[in-house]
């Protein structure tokens, strides 16, 4: 009997990209191991998937996950999808450094922990690592500085990891994710701290928090459609993979992803940021806010 393709996905809480990816790979006949930090994976278990509790910021949790996966997969993991992460919006001058460290610990260092811990299982299967990034890493969206930095670091990490893993038979792909309908923006309420230099921009800041939900030029893509595309890019084998040059190094998908890719290739990604600014719902313009902030500073 042919062994099923085994897929471990981090960050599979309901309503997110990881959940949709788990369903997409499961539909394609894969043995999906869905993980989340909290015990919220009952629906996926009912569909026939394996589920595990996993906190990618906890080395002991990652080590326990590795041991469990080894038992489930006969020490061979075909695909590792590093999707766990969170979004936080704040002006760079107001960003709490401890909060920035927490974001990097999940968005970047969690991926590093997973790659290191599961490398043996991936090498045994000549597998594939998929790291989730964002178009924010390619465009200067106001108040996204630390989140964008974590995803830009993910891009660089993935590019070097790809070169280092190639002699070991493991491929590395990064997904540059655009606007997708998910709960990534549903974290704890965020507001400008007292005394912020951006106080005149408070209304704009509050609207920017939900930009992915209401931006008109880049409407969010359903998570299911995004996941089906990523799974489809991942699984083709045989002559199709050889004809197309193998697994792509990157996949751009989501609202605004194609536009950002085109402008990034010609060095004009700033145009996407400008278009995003003018496409927010009616309210104070960025230029008016710029003048207000400068007036306060002077």
What's the arrangement of secondary structure elements?
Layout: E1 6-9, H1 17-27, E2 31-36, H2 42-46, E3 50-53, H3 59-73, E4 79-82, H4 97-125, E5 128-134, H5 145-165, E6 171-177, H6 202-209, H7 211-214, H8 223-234, H9 239-243, E7 250-253, H10 257-265, H11 270-278, H12 286-297
Parallel strand pairs: 1-2, 1-4, 2-3, 4-5, 5-6, 6-7
Helix pairs in contact: 1-8, 3-4, 4-5
Provide a descriptive summary of the structure in words.
The protein is α/β, with parallel strands linked by helices. The longest helix is centred in the middle third of the chain and has 29 residues. Strands 3-2-1-4-5-6-7 form a 7-stranded parallel sheet, with helices on both faces. The protein has a single domain, classed as Rossmann fold (3-Layer(aba) Sandwich), CATH 3.40.50.720. It is 47% helix and 12% strand. Helix 3 runs parallel beside helix 4 and helix 4 packs parallel to helix 5. Helix 1 links the parallel strand 1 and strand 2. The protein is elongated, with a radius of gyration of 20 Å.
Number of strands: 7
Q: Could you tell me the mean pLDDT?
A: 85
Shape: elongated
Strand percentage: 5-15%
Return residue spans where pLDDT drops below 50 for at least 5 consecutive residues: 212-216
**What count of domains describes the coordinates?**
1
Indicate the CATH class.
Alpha Beta
What's the total helix number?
12
Order of helices and strands: EHEHEHEHEHEHHHHEHHH
SS-based structural class? Answer: alpha/beta
Overall CATH architecture? 3-Layer(aba) Sandwich
CATH superfamily: NAD(P)-binding Rossmann-like Domain
For the CA atoms, what is the radius of gyration?
20 Å
What helical percentage do the residues reach? 40-55%
CATH domain fold name: Rossmann fold
Largest sheet: 7 strands, parallel
Query: Alpha-carbon distance between the termini?
Result: 74 Å
Strand arrangement across the biggest beta sheet? 3-2-1-4-5-6-7
